[in-house]
């Protein structure tokens, strides 16, 4: 066993599994410029320590550039852009003190993209808007209600999610489920539920509004690092963990409703499995 492997094995035995990972991340972040590819690879393999997560996500998402020397300047520009958008909505009377922050973020995003209707009643309720609000709500919770951090994280994660190839992930999820649990697969197939599982919430919203915050952070670490296959594993974990309940549900609408709005204690029970155990299913 090499010296490095011995140290890693020792650290894991005594409960310091993340010691070397933390040191590696500190080295990566100290470089100028930061190697975004290496940083993404780290995120794809390991959960990011909480103290580094805000900076790591901003770098990977492109909110900040890889050159630390201009981070302060770029963040100031982001701040001014945020304030300008928020101020414009107030002038337009599109928001007020009672407007939920997630809805404020949606309108700011639409204004930035030139897609905000001038009249409030013409803002349609669409799946895309619901998706953004779900991501924004999760971002607000994960960033301890820091509006600036929350907005830019939500915008960039949403844009990242729009690139996801849902159809491919849906097919992989169904194929692996058929192999892992034929009885559950056949039940969902019989009640016409397989095609109506909440794939959008899973794969485009990256499980925002489905998983508790702590578990969601770890999933987003992997996805933002490029290991989006983990979404398939998390989807399968949801199905297999709750197979007993799902086997007793007879309609696709109730299946979808249960998987999206399961009680918090049930959410926790399905999110405590280590993400890397998805290797058994060949999806991480």
TrEMBL record:
- Give the chief site where it resides: cytoplasm
InterPro entries named in the record: Rab-GAP-TBC_dom (IPR000195), Rab-GAP_TBC_sf (IPR035969), TBC1D7 (IPR039842), TBC1D7_dom2 (IPR043039)
Membrane recorded as keyword: yes
- SUPFAM superfamilies to which the protein is assigned, alphabetical: Ypt/Rab-GAP domain of gyp1p
Q: Which UniProt keywords apply?
A: Cytoplasm, Cytoplasmic vesicle, GTPase activation, Lysosome, Membrane
Coiled-coil boundaries: none
Q: What does the record list as GO biological process?
A: negative regulation of TOR signaling
Give residue ranges for domain Rab-GAP TBC.
47-227
Q: Where in the cell is it found?
A: Cytoplasm, Cytosol; Cytoplasmic vesicle; Lysosome membrane
Q: Which GO terms describe its cellular component?
A: cytoplasmic vesicle; lysosomal membrane; TSC1-TSC2 complex
> Which superkingdom, per the lineage?
Eukaryota
Q: Which Pfam families match?
A: RabGAP-TBC
UniProt keyword annotation of Protein transport present: no
Q: Which GO molecular function entries does the Swiss-Prot or TrEMBL record give?
A: GTPase activator activity; TSC1-TSC2 complex binding
- Name the PROSITE patterns on file: TBC_RABGAP
The cross-references to Gene3D superfamilies, in alphabetical order and at most eight, read: Ypt/Rab-GAP domain of gyp1p, domain 1, Ypt/Rab-GAP domain of gyp1p, domain 2, Ypt/Rab-GAP domain of gyp1p, domain 3
Function per UniProt = Non-catalytic component of the TSC-TBC complex, a multiprotein complex that acts as a negative regulator of the canonical mTORC1 complex, an evolutionarily conserved central nutrient sensor that stimulates anabolic reactions and macromolecule biosynthesis to promote cellular biomass generation and growth. The TSC-TBC complex acts as a GTPase-activating protein (GAP) for the small GTPase RHEB, a direct activator of the protein kinase activity of mTORC1.
Specify the protein name. Answer: TBC1 domain family member 7
Origin organism of this chain? Answer: Strongylocentrotus purpuratus
